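Appendix B, record 7
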Amino acid sequence: MFLFFANIFLASCVSSQPQNIADVCAIFEERRGWFEAANTSEKRWGIPVAVNMAIIYQESSFRARAKPQRSKVLWILPGPRASSAYGYAQALDSTWKEYKRASGSKRASRSDFKDAVDFVGWYNANSSRVSSIAGSDAYSLYLAYHEGNAGFQRGTYRDKQWLIAAANRVKINAERFNSQLDGCSKQLQKGWLRRLFS
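Structure tokens (predicted):
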């Protein structure tokens, strides 16, 4: 009985998907804590907020418990999932363990936006260093994010047209998010009292 209520409590702690996921200003207006977390990640790892948010948008559409679809056995029975990817960032079990060790965030959770956006910033900063990708190059960072840096350097994405299309969407979304942030970041940085009188 205790476990039942504990699970209900934990489920209620996980944020629902924001209402307008195509507008980063609307997301941050709805979730002020996310704005702070995204900015903290940028300051810590040097990757722009717009790039990290565009990758999370592509990976999970800002759903806390996103998972890959199950395969089908005999066309109807649910089979295994394609990978262990989970959460906002769709981080794999092994990569998440590496992040927790490297970042010192032992209690980090893939269904916690603050931890997920920090993970994406950490991964992208590593790709920038290891694969010589500019921090603003959302297209290449997404390819490295999906294929791993070894795969990116080998060009494993070149025959995957669906992945190249996804990377182009990330690039377009990062540009849009950046433009949106230009118009709202000053307002978002105001405290609640200043917003009340502005």
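Remarks on this record: The radius of gyration is 18 Å. The chain has a mean pLDDT of 87.
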